Fold:
Amino acid sequence: MLTVFVIEVHKRAEILERVAGLARRRGFEIQSLSLGPTDMPDLLRMTLVVETEEAGASRFLRHLGRLQNVLKVYEISPKHSLLRDLAIIKIAATAEERSEIIQIASVFGARIVDICRQSIAIECTGGSGKVDRLVELLASYGIVEMARTGLIAMRRGLNGGRREAENEDAQDNDENLRQLALATTAAES
Structure:
């Protein structure tokens, strides 16, 4: 099963290596890893998605908490969280194809971020499944380049997610993890 961890760390050069090394040593396959700044200048927030069973997730959570420079680590429940992926996709496009591509992007709520003579770049934010479906549709036009953030996650509610409630996006978040698992399996084939 795919498990999502959020890790808040001090801004240090070696922290990414330590977390990835721990996952490797414990035999976890990293499906997604995102690292970025927080609202505090000396802190970074990492979202890590790994394939593991429940007992392995609990052990990994404890081991992550023991790493130097890790301030806080917790597992995210898809039912009580926001899970998002960002992709920028550059597509080879003739003048005739542009309107079709713009229409497809519009259906997915994606934005056009660049148009050149021979290409168009689209930004799409949403669940992994949504981004994957857009990529599938655009592939027939010829994807020139693509960059994805991987999943980022945040608990819903106040007080670090202690106040959790069922929400309409819970099924979408479960679907995001299923789509990520399917995409990873397909890529390995």
